[in-house]
Amino acid sequence: MLKTILAQVKEYKKASILTPVFMFGEVIMEMIIPLLMASIIDDGVNKGDTSHIYVIGAWMIVTALFSLLFGLLGGKYAAMASMGLGKNLRKAMFENIQNFSFANIDKFNTASLVTRMTTDVTNIQNACQMVLRMCVRALSSLVTAMFLSFIISPRLASIYLVAVILLGTCLSFIVKKAMRYFQEAFAKYDDLNESVQENVSAIRVVKAYVRGDYEKNRFKKASQNIYNMLFRAESVIVWNSPLMQFTVYSCILLISWFGAHMVVGSSLETGDLMAMLTYCMNILMSLMMLSMVFVMISMSVASARRISEVINEKSTLANPTNPDYVIPDGSIRFDHVSFRYSSTSEAPVLDDINLNIRSGETIGIIGGTGSSKSTFVNLISRLYDVDSGCVYVGGKDVRTYDLDTLRNEVSVVLQQNVLFSGTILDNLRWGKADATREECIEACKQACADEFIQTFPDQYDTYIEQGGTNVSGGQKQRLCIARALLKKPKILILDDSTSAVDTATDARIRQAFREAIPGTTKLIIAQRISSVMDADRIIVLDDGHLDGFGTHEELLKNNTIYRDVYESQTQGGGDFDEGGVS
């Protein structure tokens, strides 16, 4: 875990090294000042040597300026190192997430990933800065002050030593107890973020079902859980202050009492007593700073562990050693393919699938909910790897292809259509980054999207809100189809991607496919028979098994499931929206 976090320091190593150096320099300058003060009192004031006071006073000013300079430089480089570490941690997580397979993504929910990239990284940044500045400063100050105190008076310094041991023991107990609460609290941030994310993204559903009060109570409960844990932790930490105050005042009283007797007995100079009192405050304040550092570290341990999990997560999919970069055609073959999402699952999601699809064919796919239609097409673009058997594209096992090459040639319009904030053109160019405006318009015409885009005041420069909330479901689907067409793929997969458009528009989109991309293999998952009945062949899936594969006429004669679906949808005279408008 620590190795993973420190590996992200990278270009900020210099700043990470210079910070402790400058902090140590600041401490040394501060430790010299009490000695100079003692010299002024003992050799200047007591002896009436004015020139000595001026000289040592000048040196005190120089020392203070150097202390200020070192402190400023230490603060600058500490900020640079900690913020740089946070930047690199977020970058490392985000880049690794981009390489995740669907199986990896299933392990982390969105709210958890957001928490790790925000709250957890912030904890690491704060801990890094405190370690580089406060921890180094506190340790240096503690050791230096203790060393100089023993040089001045071992007898009085022994009071410090006893206080340090007692206070350190008490503070370690406090930190250990608080650490447990902090670890539990940060784990609950996921629940809070999940509540906020779901509520905001589904606000229309919340309002439609009048579930505002329920969501408020849900958020309140998640927030209260964090409050309870942090309150318990702070209730323990709060003992730091009174314990520190008691120790400080006790040491001051003891040193003043014994030191005064030593001054009267001429075994200690007045200036040395003043220096001892100054070192007393330095030592005990150093302990207080160390306790704060340990608390921050305890808070960040859980965060570091969660961040490391994301960075160290290895994708279940990887490029072969010598990948193929050319896909000959859009033919597809499933050879005894079986697949399950988890190795512990009792039954496979897809079981012994055998079929052969010729390049350029239009294939319909139907089946009931949970029949694994989406899983079937996800194997083609290698979003998952099969458990047994092989999936062939262009006559080669998909596992032999470069992943980017394969996914560029297998264009998928997913069941959950996603648009990103930006203009319509920006979204379309996800399919082809260098696509011209004319190419984008042509793709939209094929997807029957140009007709509604032209009604917008800004047309193709219309700004799409995050998630595409300012366009309808059917409009969103057609934009996603146009985006996929821009890639000019060898295989085009529509995963129930025309469910939000009427049957007339659906038919026009399919007609455009036949005319514009005849050489592309097209797989169309649909719930409506009208969307697949004119396909070259149709796949019927039932509970992960291939129940039928043939033309519309063949399946009507030989496949019970297909015939039942067809009759249930056509007995009423066709789909209700046939001939309607989009």
Gap from first CA to last CA: 54 Å
The biggest sheet, with number of strands, parallel, antiparallel or mixed sense and barrel status, is:
6 strands, mixed
Query: Given the C-alpha coordinates, what overall shape results?
Result: elongated
Give the beta-strand count: 12
Mean pLDDT: 79
The helical percent reads 55-70%
Radius of gyration: 35 Å
Essential attributes:
four-stranded antiparallel sheet; disordered C terminus; 20 helices; alpha/beta; 582 residues; elongated; six-stranded mixed sheet
Q: Could you explain how this protein is built, in words?
A:
- Strand 9 (491-495), helix 18 (503-516) and strand 10 form a beta-alpha-beta unit.
- The model is unreliable at 574-582 (pLDDT under 50).
- This protein has 582 residues and is an alpha/beta fold.
- The chain has helices spanning 2-6, 13-45, 50-98, 102-105, 110-152, 154-187, 189-201, 203-208, 212-237, 240-264, 270-312, 373-378, 403-409, 424-428, 437-446, 450-453, 473-485, 503-516, 552-558, 560-570; strands at residues 332-339, 350-357, 362-367, 388-393, 396-397, 410-413, 422-423, 463-464, 491-495, 521-525, 537-542, 545-550.
- The protein is elongated, with a radius of gyration of 35 Å.
- The chain has a six-stranded mixed sheet with strand order 6-9-10-3-11-12. Strands 2-1-4-5 form a four-stranded antiparallel sheet, with no helix packed on it. Strands 7-8 form a two-stranded antiparallel sheet.
- The two termini are 54 Å apart.
- The longest helix has 49 residues, at 50-98.
